[in-house]
UniProtKB/TrEMBL annotation:
Family designation: Belongs to the GST superfamily.
Positions of the GST N-terminal domain: 1-87
Pfam families: GST_C (PF00043), GST_N (PF02798)
Start and end residues of each GST C-terminal domain: 90-212
Superkingdom classification of source: Bacteria
Lineage per the UniProt record: Bacteria, Pseudomonadati, Pseudomonadota, Alphaproteobacteria, Hyphomicrobiales
CDD domains named among the record's database cross-references: GST_C_YfcG_like, GST_N_Ure2p_like
The protein's name in its UniProt record: GST-like protein
PANTHER family listed in its UniProt record: DISULFIDE-BOND OXIDOREDUCTASE YFCG, GLUTATHIONE S-TRANSFERASE-RELATED
């Protein structure tokens, strides 16, 4: 059994997508980031960066005691190695999938996240910041579109690289992107969205969070919790 500490964000969806694809048994522990659940001591013991997702695997492969992991990329890699699924076994295929997973972690996710913030959530609309992140998101969509021009999925067969990137492309409208400009990304998005495991994962999101699909920031208290953090929150 895997305990999944989860909220309905792109990084959270990555893990439910994998777990549903692999058919692993898991239990969701909702971490409502709008209410400050991410600062509770019991969660910080597992996720010291006070960010979701995180997990505890009570039956690790080759392990005698439970293992806790935070950071969605590390979690995807761990689950792929645990199950032997969604990560090629050969050297070249393996690192092809890993490098594209890191591309999402270091590029698409952070840039799209800042895009969301300055375009949709910042009280003061700063044209320079909006243009900077919308344009960089656009560039990254272009990189992904080129990559997908001659293959069905990012690293050949469906893999953790696709699960990492997909949830960050789903909200393309909120990122100021015209998906029709990226036909290969659009085809890829539709293909993954039609997978039964993807549909189950996103159905879980609606079960966990009745407000899923609505703006993440609805009150000033939520704004302070999510955007007003300093080192004081981890003391």
């Amino acid at each position: 059994m895997i305990d999944l500490y989860y909220w309905t964000t792109p990084n959270g969806h990555k893990i439910t997508m994998f777990l549903e694809e692999a058919g692993l048994k898991y239990k969701i522990f909702p971490i409502n980031i709008g209410k400050g659940d991410q600062f509770k001591p019991e969660f910080l013991a597992i996720a010291p960066n006070n960010r979701i997702p995180a997990m505890v695997d009570h039956e690790p492969k080759g392990g005698a005691k439970p293992i806790s992991i935070f950071e969605s990329g590390a979690m995807l890699l761990y689950l792929a190695e645990k199950t032997g699924k969604f990560l090629p076994a050969d050297l070249y295929g393996r690192y092809d999938a890993i490098q594209w997973t890191f591309w999402q972690m270091g590029g698409l996710g952070p840039m799209a996240g800042q895009n969301h913030h300055f375009r949709n959530y910042a009280v003061e609309k700063l044209p320079y910041a909006i243009d900077r992140y919308v344009n960089e998101t656009n560039r990254l969509y272009g990189v992904l579109n080129k990559r997908l021009s001659d293959r069905e999925f990012v690293a050949g067969d469906y893999s953790i690289a696709d699960m990492a990137a997909y949830p960050w492309v789903v909200p393309y409208k909120n990122q100021g992107q015209d998906i029709d400009q990226f036909p290969h990304v659009k085809r890829w998005l539709e293909t993954i969205g039609a997978r039964p495991a993807t549909m189950r994962a996103y159905a879980k999101a609606k079960e966990v969070n009745p407000n899923f699909g609505q703006p993440a920031i609805r009150t000033e208290e939520e704004r302070k919790l999510l955007f007003g953090q300093t080192a004081a929150v981890v003391k």
